[in-house]
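Researcher: I need the complex structure. Ligand is pyridoxal-5'-phosphate. Inputs:
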Amino acid sequence: MLTENYDLVYQNVVDAAKKAGRNPDEVTLIAVSKTKPVSMLQEIYDHGCRHFGENKVQELVEKYEVLPKDIKWHMIGHLQRNKVKYIVDKVFLIHSVDSVRLAEEIDKQAAKKQVICNILVEVNVANEATKFGLMVDEVVSMVEEISKFPNIRIKGLMTIAPYVVDSEENRSIFHNLKQLSVDIMQKNIDNVTMDVLSMGMTGDYEVATEEGATLVRVGTGIFGERDYSKASV
Ligand SMILES: *Cc1c(COP(=O)(O)O)cnc(C)c1O
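Model: Output:
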């Protein structure tokens, strides 16, 4: 079941990329494994999956400890400053940086661990009051400020689109995030590249891929519905 789901989602990503005239190799599928037991992660790891996304620090660390060390862990959830120290040397990419204060803490902890931390800046493109992330008009100045931290590299942008029934409704959001990344790239800011666009979830990853996603974050479509009443590990 699990590996079939993974293959199906992966094939859909490939098809969406081709449909848009993109090279499918530009798009990486992140298996969003929050709330799911390590046995399930191990199963798709054995099937070839190397990118996993988690949204809670403790859960990420627990899974990191027991699973193979070549997994690339993506921190995709809201990150509290006091927890940065637990993950800064374990994650491949932090998707959810939305303040200078958080970036400052990441820089400090990365320096302590002698690593360079790769991050994305989270943008609330849809302007939803309930969501984290920067407003579009705040992004450029924030990127400029964060780019000054020596132990951080800004690799691109991330957004969480609203839940919609028809994924076409989110197309303009993905299009706008892509456009914003192009605008920022053209500013040639030191320590900043805009090669990574993290957008698209189970309901809309195909549209996101068509609009330029390089990372799609799919949970339910691979692992099935989440049951928050059960322990995670
Ligand atoms: C949970 C989560 C996902 C995956 O959501 P699905 O709809 O289950 O694919 C993607 N991105 C973020 C930030 C998440 O928290």
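Model: Summary of the prediction. Residues 32, 34, 55, 76-77, 160, 201-203, 217-221 surround pyridoxal-5'-phosphate (CB under 6 Å).
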